[in-house]
Design a protein that fits this description.
Blueprint (H helix, E strand, L loop, with lengths): L1 H32 L7 E5 L5 H10 L6 H10 L7 E5 L5 H9 L5 E5 L6 H9 L28 E5 L4 H19 L11 H14 L6 H13 L7 H8 L40 H8 L8 E4 L5 E4 L2 H18 L8
Antiparallel strand pairs: 1-2, 3-4, 5-6
């Protein structure tokens, strides 16, 4: 009798488990597996769009089968939908879609602002990024509408697809504010007096070399020249003036006559640093200026391999320069000048 009773209990347990499994399967099927979506799609939810409006769109475009189930899923996930651009994967059911839209799991993209770019170059680059929206210029008394060289921190920013270009620039501006705060109390090497001086010299170093290991050495050359009251004679400062702040000759050569252009940024005509940075700088260029190499170098010239040769004496520099002239003629004939 006792055995029979135990068998009956086990049978009921098995039956209950079977029913539970069926219920779970049905729920999963209805909410997440029952889907007409055979290909991935992009859904854009406008700011302020109602749940009803988005539901109708999803049903009409055969992204979900049941508007009621989608609405129910939205309510279980909090009841509100967030604006943005969403990549809905193939086979996604109402629960997955509702979860994405209610929790703002928007499509993302990466935007890289290169080190050494000027504001004009950055704006041109951002205009060519199709995953962003809006213009790069604005007319208002807010920081992002009045950017200058040195205000932007070059970096890779991971953002929601469809983000405005102004928002990207403001994100990079805020990152530079953070960098400034973290380094502002640092002791500056002589003869630099303030943060602007640091950024100005860092921008020149940034434009002179792409090699991180060379940056502290080049920084030392310019600091040595400043301390001896020698003109910096930095080509990038002339290029900045010639290109009206664009910062790139775009294939045109820098000629001897260009060095005579009258501008406070022309370090061939004026002693000391230019008034403001000539580009936006990365952390390595800033660190190179704050902690320059300990050298007695006063000159450097390109070595033809992407780097530079350094010297303390002008006679040695002349020899290095003669070698570079020969290499230069073989490359493209661009004129380079003494540092």
């Amino acid at each position: 009798m006792q055995k029979q009773k135990w068998k009956n209990i086990k049978s009921w347990i098995k039956f209950a488990l079977a029913i539970c499994a069926i219920v779970v399967f049905v729920i999963l099927f209805i909410f997440n597996l029952w889907t007409p979506l055979k290909h991935s799609v992009t859904v854009v939810v406008p700011r302020g769009a109602s749940v009803g409006r988005i539901t109708n769109y999803l049903v009409q475009n055969r992204i979900v089968k049941s508007g009621r189930l989608f609405n129910f899923s939205v309510q279980l996930n909090g009841g509100t939908i967030q604006a943005g651009e969403y990549d809905i994967p193939r086979g996604a059911g109402v629960w997955t879609i509702a979860d994405m839209l209610t929790h703002g799991k928007v499509a993302v993209t990466s935007v890289t602002i290169p080190e050494g770019y000027t504001i004009k170059q950055i704006k041109q680059m951002l205009q060519n990024v199709p995953d962003l929206s809006g213009d790069v210029d604005c007319d208002a008394n807010v920081p992002v509408c009045n950017l200058a060289e040195g205000d932007i921190f070059p970096d890779t920013y991971r953002i929601a697809r469809g983000t405005s270009r102004l928002a990207v620039m403001d994100l990079a501006r805020k990152k530079m504010v953070e960098v400034k705060k973290s380094l502002f109390e640092t002791v500056y090497p002589e003869p630099l007096k303030n943060w602007n001086d640091v950024l100005v010299l860092a921008s020149i170093v940034q434009k002179e070399t792409p090699k991180t290991k060379e940056m502290p050495v080049i920084a030392s050359v310019y600091l040595n020249r400043l301390n001896k009251n020698m003109r910096l004679q930095a080509d990038p400062t002339v290029v900045y003036v010639l290109t009206d702040g664009f910062g790139d000759m775009r294939g045109e050569p820098l000629l001897r006559g260009h060095l005579k252009i009258d501008s406070p940024y022309n370090t061939y005509r004026h002693n000391g640093l230019p008034p403001k940075p000539i580009a936006n700088v990365g952390i390595q260029a800033i660190r190179a200026v704050l902690k320059p190499a300990n050298t007695n170098y006063l000159f450097f010239v390109a070595d033809g391999r992407g780097g530079h040769k350094f010297s303390a004496e002008y006679s040695e520099h002349q020899k290095n320069h003669t070698i570079w002239r020969g290499i230069k003629k073989e490359i493209n004939g661009i004129v380079d000048y003494d540092k």
